[in-house]
Design goal:
Blueprint: H1 4-19, H2 25-28, E1 35-36, H3 41-47, E2 58-68, E3 71-81, E4 86-91, E5 97-103, E6 107-112, E7 117-122, H4 132-135, H5 139-143, E8 152-157, E9 161-166, E10 170-175, E11 181-186, E12 194-205, E13 208-218, E14 224-234, E15 251-253
Parallel strand pairs: 7-15
Antiparallel strand pairs: 1-8, 2-3, 2-14, 3-4, 4-5, 5-6, 6-7, 8-9, 9-10, 10-11, 11-12, 12-13, 13-14
Length: 254
């Protein structure tokens, strides 16, 4: 739904179009402070860091700050990831390991060591875990968000950024100087467990420029996870992406 300001813009533009038949629709269309860009989509996409084929695996440690209705918490996360799987090991504030999460394309396997329970859920069952916004996305894809020029429907710009409107409903805002992704917005909430991602504090590691702070909002925008990357190893020699669940614990499928 458009805001009242956007509705006013579109009403004025419609009147101007009727008064001036020689003006093209692209010259009269504006969304917020963004306007249609004449820059090449391919050129803009080429600016966005894309390490596909170069960055294949990753391990690291981070701190997650969880904020949701009636609850806030801080946990430490050790993670390992490749292009298809992500394994997260969670510790609470006093260092007790509470469980692990194995994230695959459409599911999350959750192992609670303290309660000795294992559950497998869909990535869309968002409120079954307070870390769902973080765990619903492959960590490699999350830290290195990539854009394919063939998926770009429209390109917009303002004074400092470009905005790529993708065919799958995502809107990606990138810095026009260095191509670093600033925000990713989901315009079709039912297609994703998250609504918005903010990227900040980029730094270089082994030739890769990656964000150190990532904020993810839930689909209903009532919850968020702020993930702070503390350490990172790119393309390690060995990586473990399996949860060692005791044989006597049955995996519940929800």
């Amino acid at each position: 739904m458009r805001s009242p300001l956007q509705q006013t813009y579109f009403l004025l533009f419609g009147i101007l179009f009727l008064l001036s038949a020689c003006s093209s629709s692209s010259e009269l269309t504006m969304e917020g402070d963004f306007r249609p860009s004449k820059e090449s989509v391919e050129k803009v996409v080429a600016m966005v860091p894309n390490y596909a084929g170069e960055l294949e695996t990753m391990t690291g440690k981070g701190r997650a700050l969880v904020s949701e209705p009636g609850n806030s918490d801080r946990v430490t996360i050790d993670f390992a990831t490749n292009e298809t799987r992500s394994l997260l090991t969670i510790q609470n504030r006093i260092g007790i390991e509470g469980g692990q999460m194995l994230v695959e394309q459409d599911s999350i396997l959750i192992y609670n060591r303290l309660d000795k329970e294992a559950q497998k859920i869909s990535i869309y069952d968002g409120r079954l875990t307070s870390l769902n916004e973080l765990t619903s996305i492959n960590m490699l894809d999350l830290i290195n968000f990539k854009v394919d020029a063939e998926n770009v429907d429209r390109l917009q710009e303002n004074g400092s950024t470009f905005r790529l409107l993708l065919r799958n409903g995502l809107r990606v805002v990138v810095d026009r100087e260095n191509g670093q992704v600033q925000t990713v917005d989901q315009t079709i909430p039912q297609n994703s467990p998250y609504s918005r991602i903010y990227y900040e504090s980029y730094g270089e590691l082994n030739g890769f420029v990656l964000p150190r702070k990532i904020t993810i909002f839930s689909a209903d925008e009532r919850s968020r996870v702020v993930f702070l990357v503390r350490s990172l190893e790119t393309n390690p020699d060995r990586i473990n992406l399996e949860i060692d669940i005791p044989d006597n614990i049955k995996i519940q499928r929800l």
